Amino acid sequence: MKLISWNVNGLRAVINKDAFSWLSEYKPDFLALQEIKASEDKIPAQIYNLGFENISVNSAKRAGYSGVMSLSNLKSTNLKSQFFDDDEGRVLEHRFDNIHLFNIYFPNGQQGDERLAYKMDFYDKFLAYIKALVGDGKGVIFCGDVNTAHREIDLKNPKANSKTSGFLPCEREWIDRVLDAGFIDTFRFINGDKKDAYSWWSYRFNSRAKNVGWRIDYFFISSNLKDKLKDAFILDGIEGSDHAPVGIEIDL
């Protein structure tokens, strides 16, 4: 089974760029989109012709902001956030068999102390929620734009960004706690300490062409799914957004 996640930074914008033409080559069973920036009644009609059986949307109450969408060929129960008051359209949870699969656009903390506190509260409540699921014997997969680079290897200029949200000690320490709880960063598990592997680049300073980026988009799995993981990758040749799609292959 192939699962792919992509922060599109505006669904209507990428549709206009024909940015889903790669789907015919990669054929994901599940496609998680973040930052769709569209209410359900403004989803472009082309999305419903991409060949997926099921489409779920969680839009923000604020127009043109945030929002997540999942497109899949899985038969699942689809829920919005069960752990956080989510009026920003950040969470979709998909339950099938004994698996809980999350598509999440995690908050950005760069707008100041209040938003950083919001981000950390979201982080903490989500981790408590998925730890409880694993404690109940569930398999957990979560993907999306986590908005934090974990290690120095995960961004081009770690020292210059050491005081920037997205690479603050408290944010990085949360990922440490995710790993300590038994979850696996699938890209690092498969690819080890591969360098210059990024999923986001600023639109400024020709950053993508120079590969001055950050790895902030992830797939994590619970350790009880480790033996089912076959591959993890970044599709950094796919354009249309400031993020690249990331994905895994897993036997489910």
Automatic annotation (TrEMBL):
<dbReference type="InterPro" id="IPR005135">
    <property type="entry name" value="Endo/exonuclease/phosphatase"/>
</dbReference>
<comment type="similarity">
    <text>Belongs to the DNA repair enzymes AP/ExoA family.</text>
</comment>
<feature type="domain" description="Endonuclease/exonuclease/phosphatase">
    <location>
        <begin position="4"/>
        <end position="243"/>
    </location>
</feature>
<keyword id="KW-0378">Hydrolase</keyword>
<dbReference type="InterPro" id="IPR036691">
    <property type="entry name" value="Endo/exonu/phosph_ase_sf"/>
</dbReference>
<protein>
    <submittedName>
        <fullName>Exodeoxyribonuclease III</fullName>
    </submittedName>
</protein>
<dbReference type="InterPro" id="IPR020847">
    <property type="entry name" value="AP_endonuclease_F1_BS"/>
</dbReference>
<dbReference type="InterPro" id="IPR004808">
    <property type="entry name" value="AP_endonuc_1"/>
</dbReference>
<keyword id="KW-0460">Magnesium</keyword>
<keyword id="KW-0479">Metal-binding</keyword>
<dbReference type="Pfam" id="PF03372">
    <property type="entry name" value="Exo_endo_phos"/>
</dbReference>
